[in-house]
Amino acid sequence: MPRLPACLSLRRLLNARRREARSRVIGLGCIGLPTAAIIARANCQVTGIDVSDHVVDTINRGEIHIEEVDLDGLVQGVVQRGTLRASTQIVPADVFVIAVPTPFEKDGQHTPDTSYVMAAATEVAGVLKKSDTIILESTCPVGTTEAMRDLIAGLRPDLKLPGQTAETPDVSIAYCPERVLPGKILEELAHNDRSIGGITPRCVRKALAFRANIDDFRESPARFIAASLAREFGERVQIVEPYAGELPREFEGTGAALVGHDVFKAVPAEERSHALIYDTRGIWPDARYSAGQIGLRLAS
Ligand SMILES: NC(=O)c1ccc[n+]([C@@H]2O[C@H](COP(=O)([O-])OP(=O)(O)OC[C@H]3O[C@@H](n4cnc5c(N)ncnc54)[C@H](O)[C@@H]3O)[C@@H](O)[C@H]2O)c1
Fold first, then answer.
1. Ligand 1 center to residue 177 CA distance, Å?
2. Position in ligand 1 atom list of the atom nearest CA 49
3. Mutation test residue for ligand 1: of 31, 51, 288, the one with most atoms within 8 Å of CB
4. Most ligand 1 atoms within 8 A of CB, residue of 25, 26, 28, 30 to mutate
């Protein structure tokens, strides 16, 4: 029998290892439930956490409480297979994905209400341990990721958090906002370009390593992002910046080039590598790219 190339067998081994990661998806609505289901479809163990008994009971029966194309069959399958279950109680895990609502406050000012995110972060803080990763997927205003980190720091002074220590942090915190459209969520969750920001590049890498198990970009060379990618690929990396700006400090001396957002948009979707945003801050829906945020792609 022909032997597997070493790199292929190593990759399989690494993928198998990663799949052992236990994950929790907090908030099982229009975004959280499909997300939990596709994580489970990739054979990763996932427990969905929701404050609603009705939501949890429905999912544990293998049924769904929202409308989304093909979601019913998928949830039924992964619940039967035992890779997805739901609970109202959070328990320790390796990866926490937060997908709770961020509605506008009723102040007439369109002020985003991040209290659900902070409530979820408080729950996570209670069970957080060293080497865990938190990925915020709710659509949040700029600064929410750091605010969440600061909240957790106050609740867990025993942990070293990213951006607050000169040593290697105990946990990673990333921001990966969802941009899917209802009606095509399952397809878009797996295939859309994805923006991942992290408080540090290490946070980005940890979030990306988790997403690489479930997204359909395993073969894309551009799945490695942020400054380390630029260092590796040098001038082949183009940094997409929507507004006039300077090359971010992290990329100085890497050979990476800055291009405008229009250049990126002009590239046919199938030729785009998976987009990424390297930034510690959140974005709000109408400002898909905030100043200071950057996307990368590999030049062909
Ligand atoms: N729905 C969309 O099409 C869409 C698209 C892109 C982004 N988003 C963003 O995704 C996020 C989630 O939106 P959604 O549409 O899935 O919301 P949703 O209202 O459909 O579901 C949210 C779920 O979270 C649960 N929840 C609330 N607080 C909780 C807590 N503290 N712990 C556990 N569970 C909790 C609720 O019971 C509910 O089941 C929002 O930030 C939204 O802006 C939504």
1. 12
2. 33
3. 31
4. 30
Q: How do residues 91-125 score in pLDDT, each as one tens digit?
A: 999 999 999 999 888 787 778 899 999 999 999 99
- Residue 191 Cα to ligand 1 midpoint, Å, equals 21
- What are the tens digits of pLDDT across the range 173-203? 988 878 778 888 998 887 766 667 778 878 8
Q: Whose CA is nearest to atom 10 of ligand 1?
A: 138
9-214 maps to CATH 3.40.50.720: yes
C-alpha of residue 194 to centroid of ligand 1, in Å:
18
The tens digit of pLDDT for each residue in 195-228 reads 677 788 788 778 877 877 775 543 332 223 344 4
Domain ranges of the chain: 9-214, 221-298
Cα–Cα distance measured from residue 135 to residue 196, given in angstroms and rounded to the nearest whole number: 9
